[in-house]
Protein backbone atom coordinates (compact mmCIF):
# COMPACT_ATOMS: atom_id res chain seq x y z
CA UNK A 1 0.00 0.00 0.00
CA UNK A 2 1.36 3.39 -1.01
CA UNK A 3 2.35 5.83 1.64
CA UNK A 4 0.71 9.29 1.80
CA UNK A 5 3.99 10.86 0.66
CA UNK A 6 4.19 8.61 -2.40
CA UNK A 7 0.56 9.34 -3.27
CA UNK A 8 1.15 13.09 -3.04
CA UNK A 9 4.27 12.86 -5.24
CA UNK A 10 2.38 10.83 -7.84
CA UNK A 11 -0.51 13.27 -7.86
CA UNK A 12 1.82 16.25 -8.26
CA UNK A 13 3.60 14.48 -11.15
CA UNK A 14 0.37 13.79 -13.00
CA UNK A 15 -0.79 17.35 -12.45
CA UNK A 16 2.53 18.64 -13.90
CA UNK A 17 2.13 16.46 -17.01
CA UNK A 18 -1.47 17.56 -17.61
CA UNK A 19 -0.57 21.22 -17.12
CA UNK A 20 2.75 21.42 -18.97
CA UNK A 21 2.97 18.30 -21.16
CA UNK A 22 5.38 15.40 -21.09
CA UNK A 23 9.01 16.14 -20.17
CA UNK A 24 11.46 16.58 -23.08
CA UNK A 25 13.02 13.17 -22.57
CA UNK A 26 9.66 11.60 -23.38
CA UNK A 27 8.36 14.00 -26.10
CA UNK A 28 11.56 13.58 -28.10
CA UNK A 29 10.30 10.16 -29.20
CA UNK A 30 7.01 11.54 -30.59
CA UNK A 31 6.91 11.71 -34.46
CA UNK A 32 7.79 15.09 -36.00
CA UNK A 33 4.28 15.54 -37.40
CA UNK A 34 3.44 17.45 -34.25
CA UNK A 35 5.78 20.21 -35.49
CA UNK A 36 3.76 20.89 -38.67
CA UNK A 37 0.92 23.36 -39.04
CA UNK A 38 -1.50 20.46 -39.53
CA UNK A 39 -3.37 19.45 -36.36
CA UNK A 40 -2.20 16.15 -34.86
CA UNK A 41 -5.67 14.67 -35.22
CA UNK A 42 -5.41 14.68 -39.05
CA UNK A 43 -4.28 11.62 -41.01
CA UNK A 44 -0.54 11.20 -40.41
CA UNK A 45 -0.03 9.74 -43.90
CA UNK A 46 -0.90 13.03 -45.63
CA UNK A 47 1.89 13.58 -48.23
CA UNK A 48 4.18 16.52 -47.60
CA UNK A 49 5.41 16.87 -51.21
CA UNK A 50 3.66 19.11 -53.74
CA UNK A 51 0.48 17.65 -55.19
CA UNK A 52 0.56 17.14 -58.96
CA UNK A 53 -2.53 16.53 -61.07
CA UNK A 54 -1.82 15.22 -64.58
CA UNK A 55 -4.04 16.22 -67.49
CA UNK A 56 -3.98 15.13 -71.14
CA UNK A 57 -6.54 15.45 -73.95
CA UNK A 58 -6.10 11.68 -74.33
CA UNK A 59 -7.00 11.01 -70.69
CA UNK A 60 -10.30 10.37 -68.95
CA UNK A 61 -11.99 12.61 -66.42
CA UNK A 62 -12.88 9.45 -64.50
CA UNK A 63 -9.18 8.81 -63.84
CA UNK A 64 -7.55 9.85 -60.59
CA UNK A 65 -5.05 12.10 -62.33
CA UNK A 66 -2.30 11.18 -59.88
CA UNK A 67 0.14 9.89 -62.50
CA UNK A 68 1.08 10.44 -66.13
CA UNK A 69 -0.43 7.03 -66.88
CA UNK A 70 -3.82 8.01 -65.42
CA UNK A 71 -4.35 11.62 -66.53
CA UNK A 72 -7.59 13.50 -66.46
CA UNK A 73 -8.85 14.74 -69.79
CA UNK A 74 -9.58 18.39 -68.96
CA UNK A 75 -8.22 21.23 -66.91
CA UNK A 76 -11.79 21.80 -65.77
CA UNK A 77 -11.93 18.32 -64.20
CA UNK A 78 -8.65 18.96 -62.38
CA UNK A 79 -9.99 22.21 -60.92
CA UNK A 80 -13.24 20.50 -59.93
CA UNK A 81 -11.16 18.35 -57.58
CA UNK A 82 -10.65 21.53 -55.51
CA UNK A 83 -6.86 21.31 -55.46
CA UNK A 84 -5.23 22.79 -52.35
CA UNK A 85 -2.75 25.64 -52.36
CA UNK A 86 0.56 24.52 -53.85
CA UNK A 87 -0.92 22.06 -56.33
CA UNK A 88 0.57 21.86 -59.83
CA UNK A 89 -1.76 20.94 -62.68
CA UNK A 90 0.55 19.53 -65.35
CA UNK A 91 -0.82 19.71 -68.89
CA UNK A 92 0.32 17.34 -71.62
CA UNK A 93 0.56 18.24 -75.32
CA UNK A 94 -2.68 18.79 -77.18
CA UNK A 95 -5.69 21.07 -77.57
CA UNK A 96 -7.91 21.88 -74.60
CA UNK A 97 -11.33 22.95 -75.85
CA UNK A 98 -15.03 22.51 -75.20
CA UNK A 99 -14.80 19.28 -77.18
CA UNK A 100 -12.34 17.85 -74.63
CA UNK A 101 -14.51 18.82 -71.66
CA UNK A 102 -13.41 22.37 -70.84
CA UNK A 103 -16.03 24.70 -69.42
CA UNK A 104 -15.12 28.32 -69.98
CA UNK A 105 -14.19 30.56 -68.40
CA UNK A 106 -11.71 28.46 -66.44
CA UNK A 107 -10.86 29.92 -63.02
CA UNK A 108 -7.43 29.05 -61.70
CA UNK A 109 -7.82 28.56 -57.92
CA UNK A 110 -5.79 30.51 -55.39
CA UNK A 111 -2.24 29.22 -55.04
CA UNK A 112 -2.50 26.71 -57.90
CA UNK A 113 -0.06 26.43 -60.82
CA UNK A 114 -1.17 25.50 -64.33
CA UNK A 115 1.94 24.35 -66.16
CA UNK A 116 2.69 23.11 -69.64
CA UNK A 117 6.10 23.36 -71.33
CA UNK A 118 8.04 26.42 -70.19
CA UNK A 119 10.97 25.76 -72.54
CA UNK A 120 9.03 26.63 -75.71
CA UNK A 121 6.32 28.99 -74.40
CA UNK A 122 3.72 26.23 -74.57
CA UNK A 123 3.89 25.82 -78.34
CA UNK A 124 2.11 22.44 -78.36
CA UNK A 125 -0.18 22.93 -75.35
CA UNK A 126 -3.16 25.01 -76.44
CA UNK A 127 -6.15 26.24 -74.46
CA UNK A 128 -8.69 27.60 -76.93
CA UNK A 129 -12.10 29.06 -76.14
CA UNK A 130 -13.92 31.46 -73.87
CA UNK A 131 -17.27 32.37 -72.36
CA UNK A 132 -19.09 35.05 -70.39
CA UNK A 133 -17.49 36.59 -67.33
CA UNK A 134 -19.05 39.45 -65.37
CA UNK A 135 -16.18 41.69 -64.36
CA UNK A 136 -16.64 43.91 -61.26
CA UNK A 137 -14.78 46.67 -63.12
CA UNK A 138 -15.62 46.11 -66.80
CA UNK A 139 -19.02 44.37 -66.73
CA UNK A 140 -19.77 41.59 -69.24
CA UNK A 141 -16.73 40.12 -71.00
CA UNK A 142 -15.69 36.98 -72.83
CA UNK A 143 -12.59 35.34 -71.36
CA UNK A 144 -10.76 32.03 -71.47
CA UNK A 145 -8.93 31.98 -68.11
CA UNK A 146 -9.34 33.89 -64.85
CA UNK A 147 -6.37 33.97 -62.47
CA UNK A 148 -6.74 33.61 -58.69
CA UNK A 149 -4.50 34.96 -55.93
CA UNK A 150 -0.96 33.55 -55.91
CA UNK A 151 -1.69 31.48 -59.01
CA UNK A 152 0.84 30.70 -61.75
CA UNK A 153 0.18 30.23 -65.44
CA UNK A 154 3.26 29.01 -67.29
CA UNK A 155 4.24 27.20 -70.46
CA UNK A 156 0.91 27.16 -72.33
CA UNK A 157 -0.64 28.78 -75.41
CA UNK A 158 -3.93 30.59 -74.83
CA UNK A 159 -6.28 31.92 -77.50
CA UNK A 160 -9.85 33.20 -77.51
CA UNK A 161 -11.21 33.89 -80.98
CA UNK A 162 -14.70 34.79 -79.71
CA UNK A 163 -15.98 38.30 -80.35
CA UNK A 164 -14.11 40.64 -77.98
CA UNK A 165 -12.37 37.57 -76.60
CA UNK A 166 -9.62 37.84 -73.97
CA UNK A 167 -7.18 35.02 -73.28
CA UNK A 168 -6.24 35.66 -69.62
CA UNK A 169 -8.11 38.03 -67.30
CA UNK A 170 -6.66 39.07 -63.92
CA UNK A 171 -9.17 40.88 -61.70
CA UNK A 172 -7.87 42.20 -58.33
CA UNK A 173 -5.76 39.10 -57.84
CA UNK A 174 -2.52 39.32 -55.90
CA UNK A 175 0.93 37.89 -56.64
CA UNK A 176 0.03 36.28 -59.96
CA UNK A 177 2.87 34.89 -62.09
CA UNK A 178 2.37 34.68 -65.87
CA UNK A 179 5.52 33.28 -67.42
CA UNK A 180 6.78 31.58 -70.59
CA UNK A 181 3.41 31.45 -72.37
CA UNK A 182 2.18 32.33 -75.85
CA UNK A 183 -0.84 34.59 -76.25
CA UNK A 184 -1.98 34.59 -79.84
CA UNK A 185 -5.00 35.15 -82.10
CA UNK A 186 -7.38 36.35 -79.39
CA UNK A 187 -9.99 38.69 -80.81
CA UNK A 188 -9.19 41.38 -78.22
CA UNK A 189 -6.31 41.06 -75.70
CA UNK A 190 -3.79 38.48 -74.65
CA UNK A 191 -3.63 39.56 -70.99
CA UNK A 192 -5.91 42.02 -69.20
CA UNK A 193 -4.93 43.36 -65.76
CA UNK A 194 -7.58 45.30 -63.87
CA UNK A 195 -8.70 46.24 -60.38
CA UNK A 196 -6.23 46.00 -57.52
CA UNK A 197 -4.02 43.46 -59.27
CA UNK A 198 -0.36 42.67 -58.69
CA UNK A 199 1.12 40.44 -61.36
CA UNK A 200 4.43 39.66 -63.01
CA UNK A 201 4.22 38.98 -66.75
CA UNK A 202 7.58 37.55 -67.75
CA UNK A 203 9.07 35.99 -70.91
CA UNK A 204 5.85 35.54 -72.86
CA UNK A 205 5.15 35.89 -76.59
CA UNK A 206 2.28 38.11 -77.75
CA UNK A 207 1.49 37.57 -81.42
CA UNK A 208 -1.43 38.68 -83.59
CA UNK A 209 -4.02 39.58 -80.98
CA UNK A 210 -6.82 41.77 -82.28
CA UNK A 211 -6.51 44.78 -79.99
CA UNK A 212 -3.63 44.64 -77.47
CA UNK A 213 -0.97 42.29 -76.25
CA UNK A 214 -1.44 43.46 -72.64
CA UNK A 215 -3.82 45.99 -71.10
CA UNK A 216 -2.86 47.22 -67.63
CA UNK A 217 -5.68 49.18 -66.00
CA UNK A 218 -7.17 49.76 -62.56
CA UNK A 219 -4.41 50.14 -59.98
CA UNK A 220 -2.48 47.21 -61.42
CA UNK A 221 1.18 46.91 -60.53
CA UNK A 222 4.04 44.49 -60.99
CA UNK A 223 6.60 43.76 -63.72
CA UNK A 224 6.05 43.34 -67.44
CA UNK A 225 9.47 41.98 -68.28
CA UNK A 226 11.39 40.27 -71.12
CA UNK A 227 8.31 39.69 -73.26
CA UNK A 228 8.10 39.75 -77.05
CA UNK A 229 5.27 41.75 -78.63
CA UNK A 230 5.34 41.00 -82.35
CA UNK A 231 2.82 41.73 -85.11
CA UNK A 232 -0.02 42.24 -82.63
CA UNK A 233 -2.43 45.20 -82.39
CA UNK A 234 -0.99 47.62 -79.85
CA UNK A 235 1.76 46.01 -77.81
CA UNK A 236 0.80 47.60 -74.49
CA UNK A 237 -1.99 49.89 -73.32
CA UNK A 238 -1.56 51.31 -69.82
CA UNK A 239 -4.31 53.41 -68.29
CA UNK A 240 -6.42 54.42 -65.30
CA UNK A 241 -4.11 54.29 -62.23
CA UNK A 242 -1.82 51.50 -63.32
CA UNK A 243 1.78 51.72 -62.13
CA UNK A 244 3.46 48.79 -63.84
CA UNK A 245 7.20 48.49 -64.47
CA UNK A 246 7.90 47.74 -68.15
CA UNK A 247 11.38 46.27 -68.31
CA UNK A 248 13.55 44.75 -71.08
CA UNK A 249 10.79 43.92 -73.55
CA UNK A 250 10.89 43.79 -77.35
CA UNK A 251 7.91 45.65 -78.77
CA UNK A 252 8.43 45.35 -82.50
CA UNK A 253 6.53 45.26 -85.80
CA UNK A 254 3.12 45.95 -84.25
CA UNK A 255 0.39 48.37 -85.24
CA UNK A 256 1.51 50.56 -82.33
CA UNK A 257 4.03 50.12 -79.54
CA UNK A 258 2.79 51.53 -76.21
CA UNK A 259 -0.14 53.80 -75.33
CA UNK A 260 -0.35 55.50 -71.91
CA UNK A 261 -3.51 57.30 -70.79
CA UNK A 262 -5.55 58.60 -67.82
CA UNK A 263 -3.49 59.06 -64.64
CA UNK A 264 -1.27 56.03 -65.03
CA UNK A 265 2.31 56.19 -63.72
CA UNK A 266 4.28 53.48 -65.54
CA UNK A 267 8.06 53.13 -65.57
CA UNK A 268 10.00 52.11 -68.68
CA UNK A 269 13.55 50.72 -68.63
CA UNK A 270 15.72 48.89 -71.18
CA UNK A 271 13.00 48.24 -73.77
CA UNK A 272 13.40 47.95 -77.53
CA UNK A 273 10.48 49.73 -79.23
CA UNK A 274 10.99 49.60 -82.97
CA UNK A 275 9.46 49.19 -86.44
CA UNK A 276 5.87 49.80 -85.29
CA UNK A 277 3.47 51.15 -87.92
CA UNK A 278 2.30 54.05 -85.75
CA UNK A 279 3.88 55.50 -82.60
CA UNK A 280 6.54 53.76 -80.58
CA UNK A 281 5.18 55.41 -77.42
CA UNK A 282 2.20 57.77 -77.29
CA UNK A 283 1.11 59.57 -74.12
CA UNK A 284 -2.47 60.83 -74.31
CA UNK A 285 -3.83 63.93 -72.62
CA UNK A 286 -5.92 63.39 -69.48
CA UNK A 287 -5.52 66.17 -66.93
CA UNK A 288 -2.90 68.68 -65.96
CA UNK A 289 0.24 66.84 -64.92
CA UNK A 290 -1.10 63.41 -65.90
CA UNK A 291 -0.30 60.77 -66.92
CA UNK A 292 3.18 60.69 -65.40
CA UNK A 293 5.57 58.51 -67.37
CA UNK A 294 9.02 57.63 -66.01
CA UNK A 295 11.40 57.37 -68.95
CA UNK A 296 14.55 57.87 -66.94
CA UNK A 297 16.23 60.27 -64.53
CA UNK A 298 19.78 61.33 -63.71
CA UNK A 299 19.93 58.60 -61.07
CA UNK A 300 18.22 55.92 -63.17
CA UNK A 301 18.74 56.11 -66.92
CA UNK A 302 15.87 54.99 -69.11
CA UNK A 303 18.04 53.02 -71.57
CA UNK A 304 15.07 52.43 -73.87
CA UNK A 305 15.75 52.19 -77.61
CA UNK A 306 13.20 53.88 -79.89
CA UNK A 307 13.85 53.35 -83.56
CA UNK A 308 12.18 53.35 -86.96
CA UNK A 309 8.59 53.72 -85.73
CA UNK A 310 6.62 55.03 -88.69
CA UNK A 311 4.63 57.83 -87.03
CA UNK A 312 6.84 58.98 -84.17
CA UNK A 313 9.24 57.28 -81.81
CA UNK A 314 7.78 59.22 -78.87
CA UNK A 315 4.55 61.19 -79.26
CA UNK A 316 3.85 63.23 -76.12
CA UNK A 317 0.28 64.45 -76.58
CA UNK A 318 -0.28 64.95 -72.83
CA UNK A 319 0.38 68.71 -72.89
CA UNK A 320 2.90 68.27 -70.06
CA UNK A 321 6.66 68.27 -70.59
CA UNK A 322 8.08 64.75 -70.58
CA UNK A 323 11.49 64.16 -68.99
CA UNK A 324 13.34 61.29 -70.63
CA UNK A 325 16.98 60.86 -69.63
CA UNK A 326 19.29 58.26 -71.07
CA UNK A 327 17.25 56.86 -73.97
CA UNK A 328 18.34 56.15 -77.53
CA UNK A 329 16.01 58.21 -79.72
CA UNK A 330 16.32 60.67 -82.56
CA UNK A 331 14.98 64.02 -81.29
CA UNK A 332 13.72 64.76 -84.81
CA UNK A 333 11.46 61.70 -84.59
CA UNK A 334 9.48 62.93 -81.59
CA UNK A 335 6.36 65.04 -81.14
CA UNK A 336 5.24 67.18 -78.23
CA UNK A 337 7.24 68.77 -75.45
CA UNK A 338 10.04 66.38 -74.48
CA UNK A 339 13.26 67.08 -72.59
CA UNK A 340 15.45 64.21 -73.73
CA UNK A 341 18.71 65.23 -72.04
CA UNK A 342 20.66 62.75 -74.11
CA UNK A 343 24.19 62.11 -72.73
CA UNK A 344 27.10 63.11 -74.95
CA UNK A 345 28.54 59.61 -74.69
CA UNK A 346 26.45 57.10 -76.67
CA UNK A 347 24.70 54.51 -74.53
CA UNK A 348 25.22 50.79 -74.93
CA UNK A 349 22.03 49.13 -76.09
CA UNK A 350 20.52 46.99 -73.32
CA UNK A 351 20.53 43.23 -73.70
CA UNK A 352 17.03 42.03 -74.51
CA UNK A 353 15.77 38.51 -75.27
CA UNK A 354 15.43 37.43 -78.86
CA UNK A 355 11.89 37.37 -80.23
CA UNK A 356 10.59 34.32 -82.05
CA UNK A 357 11.90 35.79 -85.30
CA UNK A 358 14.77 38.24 -84.77
CA UNK A 359 14.48 41.48 -86.66
CA UNK A 360 17.10 43.84 -87.92
CA UNK A 361 16.67 47.28 -86.40
CA UNK A 362 17.93 49.76 -88.94
CA UNK A 363 18.39 53.49 -88.85
CA UNK A 364 15.43 55.48 -90.22
CA UNK A 365 15.67 56.15 -93.94
CA UNK A 366 15.83 59.69 -95.28
CA UNK A 367 12.57 59.11 -97.16
CA UNK A 368 9.44 57.16 -96.35
CA UNK A 369 9.65 53.52 -97.33
CA UNK A 370 7.73 50.33 -96.73
CA UNK A 371 4.05 49.46 -96.89
CA UNK A 372 2.75 51.50 -93.96
CA UNK A 373 0.77 53.81 -96.22
CA UNK A 374 -1.16 50.83 -97.55
CA UNK A 375 -2.71 50.20 -94.13
CA UNK A 376 -6.23 51.56 -93.80
CA UNK A 377 -6.36 54.29 -91.17
CA UNK A 378 -9.20 56.13 -89.40
CA UNK A 379 -9.94 59.73 -90.29
CA UNK A 380 -6.98 61.81 -89.07
CA UNK A 381 -7.30 64.62 -86.52
CA UNK A 382 -5.99 68.10 -87.19
CA UNK A 383 -2.25 68.18 -87.72
CA UNK A 384 -0.26 69.15 -84.63
CA UNK A 385 3.25 69.30 -85.94
CA UNK A 386 5.36 69.48 -89.05
CA UNK A 387 6.71 66.23 -90.44
CA UNK A 388 10.47 66.09 -90.45
CA UNK A 389 11.88 64.50 -93.60
CA UNK A 390 14.63 62.76 -91.64
CA UNK A 391 12.08 60.44 -90.02
CA UNK A 392 9.80 57.78 -91.50
CA UNK A 393 6.41 58.77 -92.85
CA UNK A 394 4.13 59.89 -90.04
CA UNK A 395 0.60 58.55 -90.11
CA UNK A 396 -2.52 59.97 -88.45
CA UNK A 397 -2.70 59.59 -84.67
CA UNK A 398 -4.88 56.63 -83.67
CA UNK A 399 -6.35 56.21 -80.20
CA UNK A 400 -6.68 52.52 -79.30
CA UNK A 401 -10.23 52.63 -78.01
CA UNK A 402 -11.98 49.33 -77.46
CA UNK A 403 -12.49 48.19 -81.05
CA UNK A 404 -15.60 46.36 -82.16
CA UNK A 405 -13.45 44.51 -84.66
CA UNK A 406 -9.73 43.74 -84.77
CA UNK A 407 -7.64 46.65 -86.03
CA UNK A 408 -5.72 46.51 -89.25
CA UNK A 409 -2.63 44.34 -89.21
CA UNK A 410 0.78 45.12 -90.68
CA UNK A 411 1.01 44.32 -94.36
CA UNK A 412 4.35 42.53 -93.96
CA UNK A 413 3.91 39.05 -92.51
CA UNK A 414 6.46 36.51 -91.45
CA UNK A 415 6.00 32.93 -92.52
CA UNK A 416 8.73 31.75 -90.19
CA UNK A 417 7.10 33.13 -87.06
CA UNK A 418 3.75 31.64 -88.06
CA UNK A 419 5.43 28.29 -88.57
CA UNK A 420 6.79 28.47 -85.02
CA UNK A 421 3.32 28.92 -83.53
CA UNK A 422 0.51 26.39 -83.11
CA UNK A 423 -2.19 25.93 -85.73
CA UNK A 424 -5.86 26.30 -84.80
Helix and strand layout, with pairings?
Elements: H1 4-20, H2 24-27, E1 52-55, H3 75-80, E2 88-91, E3 94-96, E4 106-108, E5 113-115, E6 125-128, E7 131-135, E8 139-147, E9 152-154, E10 157-159, E11 165-171, E12 176-179, E13 182-184, E14 189-194, E15 199-202, E16 205-207, E17 212-216, E18 223-225, E19 228-230, E20 234-238, E21 245-247, E22 250-252, E23 256-260, E24 267-269, E25 272-274, E26 279-283, E27 305-307, E28 312-316, E29 322-323, E30 334-335, E31 338-339, H4 415-419
Describe, in plain words, how this protein is organized in 3D:
With 424 residues, this protein is mostly beta strands. The chain has a domain at 242-362. It is 8% helix and 28% strand. It has 4 helices and 31 strands. Strands 4, 7, 8, 11, 14, 17, 20, 23, 26, 28 and 30 form an 11-stranded mixed sheet that branches. The longest helix is centred in the first third of the chain and has 17 residues, at 4-20. The protein is elongated, with a radius of gyration of 27 Å.
